Amino acid sequence: MKKSQFPFKSLLIITVVTFLLYLFWGNTFAYPLIIQLRAKKVLIFLLVGVSSSISTLAFQCIVNSRFLTPGILGMESFYRLIQTLLYFFGFRFIQTTLLPATQFLLVVAIMVLSFWALSRFSWQNISYDLHSVLLIGMVIGMLFSSISTFFQVLMDPNEYDRLQMKLFPTFQNVNTLVLILAILLVVPIIISLWNNRKTLEVLRMGTEQAVNLGIDTNKQIKKVLLQIVILSAVSAALVGPMMFLGFTTANLAYLLFRTYRMDVLFLATSLLGFIALLMGQFMVEQVFQFQTNASIIIEWFGGILFFVLLWKERKKA
Amino acid sequence: MLKKLIRIIPLILIVLLSLIVGTADISVGSIVTGDMDALFIFGSSRIPRTVSVFLAGSGLALSGMVMQTITQNRFAAPDTIGTVESAKLGMVLAMIVLPNMTQMWEMLFTFAFATIGTVFFLFLTSRFPMKKQLLIPLLGLMFGNIVGGFSNFLAFRYDLNQNIAAWLQGNFSLIIQGQYELIYFALILVIGLYFFADYLTVVRMGEDAAQSLGISFKWVVGSASLLVSVTVAVILITAGSLPFLGVIIPNIIAMKYGDNIKKTHQKVALTGGFFLLICDIISRSLIAPYEVPVQLILGIIAGAIFLYLLFKEVRRV
């Protein structure tokens, strides 16, 4: 524990500094308004950063691999499919007239319900063949993306442009009510995962160990997986699909703290997720003048990190 | 002899069906009597289509077989270890760098990236523990997602997205004389395999076994990846991406006839070709006179078979 004290303090300091920097840097005219707008975005960063970091962390515990993210469950392609179908069949009334809050709940509900249905019908004992379950997710994801492609090709180009806005993550224009709903959904799950952290630590050691230590692995893994799905669905519906944010923060946390204690990792990844989004958006607003997108910077960074880690793993073997 | 004949008849029927099905009515009679219009449609559209569908199917099935051999992993294939995504990146770059290029340049770019991506991934994972059969395709999927992220972003910036989606959608409806001949390159793989099969069989047994038989493992893996990349690039340019074919066909054949490549590669090639032909016939007749992209049909049929194989694997564990 002593060893991990140091980065924690500096991490907290970095968080506060980036937070203040983001909130107060730049144009001083119309200050109250700008700060109000930025404060809302900060809340979104906190929510997305924490939920995607923690869901990845929990996912990596149950699959015993630091290379995977919940992204491979095929949730993203499902999100893409839902959005594509909504636009294709001209359900734009849902996009325009229906309350954004209802829309948000609809997308989350569809994603979670279909995962639940799939898990009901497809596997009995998930803990023994988790990798196959993931591969099934991947196959379904590929199928979804070919259906999306089919409709995207048929689509009117103007409509397609509008769809594009939904398929790339953005942090602009999040409805306040939606944000509140998202917080209401996410906070209980995060608390539950936190309370469950000892079990996750045990699950990380592998199914057999966990069974020996008296854990109902089947039940636990199913539960955690469902929680992960809800978290990813919420953040996808809120800002759009982001695959590598959680991957980046979780792996940075392993590298910085060199521990597998869940309480340390939980806090560290959450802070890192928050910092990453703050810094990313700060750079987008102040350096790149909105020429690019915070999520793209983070995704690229995560992608490069993935290769570096694979490379290191290779050397170890 | 009789048995062989019985086996060949359905295959001939499939080819005939593929030649006859289509918007313009062509009866067998009009060809025999030498009706000029019928002969023209036949030569410029029907035959090219049948040939290219067949070659694409067998090329992808063989690519999958080769990849499964060199990775010693039953779930490796062009679309599960990132070859297709890398090729896509090459195609996007080609479109940006040389907007008015010929098909040959396009192919070179696509081929170069497909090779780099494949070899890079194989290199990174070559020392990974083999016991985790399902980890390689999952890592490949992550890899593919990263590479795909790059190309999506580029396509987004240059407003090529719908264009590329259209291009990549597996579809043979645009294949007419003068636009498909590139696919003959897929024959390289078929021919290459005739000389290669023995080496590949040895390579399947692992690096040490190959070494002790005086075969350079690296050389075989390198040249096999080259062959596969050419094939995948060519198929991607002429027909688009065709998911799952590379995984399921070699697996089905291996289940029935074992792993001796020299004995099975013809079967793999033929089954892949005829399987895709059947899918293509379905895609043409489902909503005739229009057609559904074959990617969709293939995705559904082959996806279902893939899921079945996976569930079987799950039960076996």
Task: Please tell me about this protein's structure.
Chain A is an all-alpha fold. Chain A has a single domain (8-315), classed as Orthogonal Bundle (ABC transporter involved in vitamin B12 uptake, BtuC), CATH 1.10.3470.10. Helix content of chain A is 80%, strand content 0%. Chain A contains 14 helices and no strands. In chain A, helix 1 runs parallel beside helix 13. Chain A is globular. Chain B has 317 residues and is mainly α. Chain B has a single domain (50-315), classed as ABC transporter involved in vitamin B12 uptake, BtuC. Chain B has 13 helices and no strands. The relative contact order of chain B is 0.16. The interface between A and B is large, with 44 and 48 residues.
SSE-based structural type of chain A: mainly alpha
β content of chain A, as a range?
under 5%
Total E-strand runs of chain A: 0
Q: Largest sheet of chain B at a glance? A: none
How far from one another are the termini of chain B? 40 Å
The assigned CATH architecture of chain B is Orthogonal Bundle
What is the H/E order of chain A? HHHHHHHHHHHHHH
Count of domains of chain B: 1
Radius of gyration of chain B, taken over Cα atoms and rounded to an integer in Å: 20 Å
CATH-assigned fold name of chain B: ABC transporter involved in vitamin B12 uptake, BtuC
